Amino acid sequence: MGEIYRAAAKIICEKGYDATSMNDIADAVGITKAGIYHHIPGKKDLLFRIMTFGMDSLEEQVIVPAREVADPELRLRTIIVNHVKLITSRSTPQGYNFVTIVVDEVAGLTAAHRRKINQRKRVYVDLVRDTLRELKAEGKLRDVDLTAAAFSLLGMILWLSRWYSPSGRLSPEQVSREVTKIALGGLLRESAGRPRR
Fold it and tell me: Between the CA of residue 32 and those of 39, 44, 49, 166, what are the distances in Å?
């Protein structure tokens, strides 16, 4: 199943969901279309399974660790670093990225599946927005709208999947440092955001 998910994700990232056929996926993994349907009822279900995998990864690697951090400034830093790591670790020379599909292809889901994925995405947005709200209450946040700031931060992180290349000049660690500097510099007052020792 993992091979099918990876092949499907790669093709969807390259061609888009609508332009991807089950024949494309079957050819990529070297089995018949009937073989694909033996494992997966249809293309919409396959997309939902890939998105669920992406959301599971986000929850395990970003949301759960962030919730364990009481200090909102350190929590925000944890969110940024871990989300950047998730995206850069899934950007491969083969070009597939499960998290990108979650963001870009939600319209391809059934209404019921779309609600489930959107509900899971909302949990993450709320975590970021609540963290910013705590920073505001502590006087550490610049004068920014919380919703606009939350979506802008997530947009900056998610856009990494469009330009980051593992074979490029910047390592995942360097990208993480740069994104953290830019994000915290734009969100936190100058008295806040200093590196913690």
Answer: 12, 18, 20, 32
